[in-house]
Design a protein that fits this description.
About 25% of the residues lie in helices and about 30% in strands. Helix 1 packs across helix 5. The protein has about 220 residues and is α/β, with parallel strands linked by helices. A hairpin with a 2-residue loop joins strand 12 and strand 13. The protein binds cytidine-5'-monophosphate. Cytidine-5'-monophosphate binds next to helix 3 and strand 9.
Length: about 220
């Protein structure tokens, strides 16, 4: 392990979108550049953590010195994350598709047969919720993200309770000049057990470094895993 306040700490970062096939040529996915998650993985590694990045397809170059597991679907992201347990901390940045097509058709659906007007969907596993609610070997610190377009704080606080995670990093993804979605900058609110902290607009790299410092502070004390 590298030296630093997070040396010997194992941290999971999920990042990017998940991609859920409809047929061999089509998929359902979420918008996600992976930038914030990759920056967090790099910042944690720079503090000495042993980082596993479980990532959906993105155009980002994975930071050196971390374990990278590439996945496509939410189910793959879930099982890759579980397979890499235990972790001291999990940071779930991925934009996971909530639903996937119930059946993946092995042949291309032809519009001539009216096949694309109705795609039955089924719910995907929730990685953040699953990790948060683990009864044995739960990561000490589980962090989720909440991308919202309105009532950011209200929705994010409700999400923290619903998912059972420790912290939520909430951001406003309303379209605009400095849109976080795909952009280089982010304005976030960190919601912890101690309340809400609004951070000023900064680069995704700065958000990552600030969050990594907070994680290091929270994981002080003897390693549990
Ligand atoms: O419910 P929603 O998708 O808005 O919650 C966002 C948070 O939950 C993010 O941290 C995301 O990575 C995580 N999530 C997950 N698995 C899902 C859906 C969301 O880990 N199936």
């Amino acid at each position: 392990d590298a030296a630093g306040p997070l040396s010997h700490r194992r941290v999971l970062v999920t990042a990017g979108p998940t991609v859920e096939p409809i047929d061999p040529v089509r998929f359902i996915a979420n918008r996600s550049s992976g930038k914030q998650g990759y920056a967090i993985a790099a910042a944690l590694r720079n503090l000495g953590a042993d980082v596993t990045l479980v990532t959906g397809p993105t155009n980002e170059k994975p930071p050196a010195g971390i374990n990278v597991v590439r996945v496509q679907t939410a189910r793959e992201m879930m099982s890759a994350s579980e397979a890499a347990l235990p972790f001291d901390c999990a940071v779930c940045c991925a934009a996971v598709a909530d639903y996937r097509p119930e059946i993946e058709t092995p042949h291309k659906i032809k519009k001539e047969r009216g096949g694309l007007t109705d795609i039955p969907l089924t719910e995907n596993p929730d990685i953040l919720k699953t990790l948060s609610k683990m009864t044995e070997g739960r990561p000490r610190l589980v962090i989720g993200f909440a991308a919202e377009t309105d009532d950011v704080l209200g929705h994010a606080e409700a999400k923290r309770n619903r998912k059972g995670c420790d912290w939520i990093v909430a951001n406003d993804v309303s379209p605009g000049e400095h849109c976080a979605m795909g952009g280089e900058r982010n304005t976030v609110i960190l919601i912890t057990e101690d309340g809400d902290e609004e951070w000023p607009e900064m680069s995704k790299g700065e958000v990552a470094r600030k969050l990594a410092d907070r994680i290091a502070g929270a994981l002080k004390g003897p390693a549990l895993v």
